[in-house]
Design goal:
It is a single chain. The chain has 16 helices and 17 strands. A hairpin with a 2-residue loop joins strand 9 and strand 10. The protein has a nine-stranded mixed beta sheet with strand order 9-10-8-7-6-5-4-1-11, sandwiched between helices. A three-stranded antiparallel beta sheet has the order 12-13-14, with no helix packed on it. Strands 15-17-16 form a three-stranded antiparallel beta sheet. The chain folds into two domains: about 250 residues, Alpha-Beta Barrel (TIM Barrel), CATH 3.20.20.70; about 60 residues, no CATH class. The protein binds iron/sulfur cluster (SF4).
Length: about 375
């Protein structure tokens, strides 16, 4: 069991609801923000008494954390430091939105420990931003990036989206070039999914969503072009310059301990999984859903294969006392021959085209 832990704090407020979003987020106002931060404070205090591990990553996500303003973010960070043992070199990330980010005091949060910002850009093309219902423009992104860097934060991650209606290889190239020219260290590149319950799902006939083949082409193009630009893929959707992989997110895929505080936040502590419902009221009432034992063999295979490093057989044996089953090896051999996986005899991992089919391949493997 590890003696370090990652801490995730969920801020469930946004300026408006993006039509594709199925995260737990609501529209709020200033009273809601300070009331919520008080609630967080009480939960952070009570979790701090139960967790004795060193916190080596903190991730304030959402929702839109920057909507709170720097003062409240600093208050949360101080609260974390006063109630948990946070390592001196902890990676402390906050998510920001270019709309609220353009007036956010990044220098202030840097003074309180934030050393990494993840900015939801999605596209460097205003027509695509409009389709995605984003309320920011490319100019807002530029202003926010200026403020982040001016505030002294150099470790910056940008999110871009693949499979947007009207997106072409050229427009995607423009988005990637924009990220590269901005000098950021990390890029997350997610494929747009039309999730049930979202506006896009309800009104899908209004949009010209690209088909699977077009999206697959965009993904494979992004993987190649990002590599050309010096961003190494380390996970299905994550790319970074050398040494700038997200330490916090790696905990999820390595089955390390993490504690999530806030509605919809998930945790895995000492191989036990639990989560808060998507409800501020349930969070307030400490209504925690127990998911039972985590870190099962299936989970290990599923999460390790999200990483380009893949699954190391000896490491698996160290954890579970034996190698994966014969059936697993015969199936991975088959997928290697098909070009969806690759192996060097010590490990197995997906190729970029395999990542596109990873859900069904993993389901077959486990
Ligand atoms: S800003 Fe992010 S969390 Fe908020 S609604 Fe849009 S996609 Fe969802």
């Amino acid at each position: 069991m590890s003696d370090t832990i990652g801490l995730y704090i969920h801020i469930p407020f946004c300026h408006s609801k993006c039509p594709y979003c199925d995260f737990f987020s609501i529209r709020g106002n200033k009273t809601d923000y300070s009331g919520y931060v008080n609630l967080l404070e009480s939960k952070i205090k009570s979790w701090g008494k139960k967790i004795d591990k060193m916190v080596d990553t903190v991730y304030i996500g959402g929702g839109t954390p920057s909507i709170l303003g720097a003062q409240l973010i600093c208050y949360i960070l101080d609260c974390v430091k006063n109630n948990f043992k946070v390592t001196d070199d902890a990676e402390i990330t906050m998510e920001a939105n270019p709309f609220s980010g353009k007036i956010f005091d990044f220098a202030e949060v840097k003074r309180h420990g934030v050393n990494r910002v993840s900015l939801g850009v999605q596209s460097a093309n205003d027509n695509e931003l409009k389709i995605l219902g984003r309320i920011h423009s490319l100019d807002n992104v530029k202003n926010t990036l200026f403020l982040i860097k001016d505030g002294g934060i150099k470790n910056i991650s940008l999110d871009i989206m693949l499979g947007i209606p009207e997106q072409t290889k050229e427009s995607l190239k423009k988005s990637i070039d924009f990220c590269f020219d901005s000098g950021v260290t990390h890029i997350s590149s997610y494929i747009l999914k039309i999730e049930e319950g979202t506006f896009f799902h309800k009104h899908r006939e209004r949009y010209d969503f690209p088909d699977e083949d077009t999206t697959a082409d965009l993904y494979l193009f992004a993987v190649d072009y990002l590599a050309e630009k010096g961003f190494k893929q380390y996970e299905i959707s994550n790319f970074s310059k050398k040494g700038y992989e997200s330490k916090h997110n790696l905990k999820y895929w390595n089955l390390d301990d993490y504690l999530g505080i806030g509605p919809a936040a998930h945790s895995c502590v000492n191989k036990k999984r639990f989560y808060y419902n998507r409800s501020i009221e349930d969070f307030k009432n400490d209504d925690i859903v127990d998911e039972g034992a985590g870190a099962s063999r299936k989970e290990y295979i599923m999460l390790r294969l999200r990483l380009t490093e893949g699954l190391y057989f000896e490491k698996y044996k160290e954890v579970y006392g034996e190698l994966p089953s014969k059936d697993f090896f015969s199936k991975t051999d088959k997928y290697c021959k098909m070009g969806f996986m690759k192996t060097d005899g010590k490990s197995v991992s997906f190729t970029p085209s395999g990542f596109l089919l990873s859900n069904s391949i993993i389901a077959d493997l486990i």
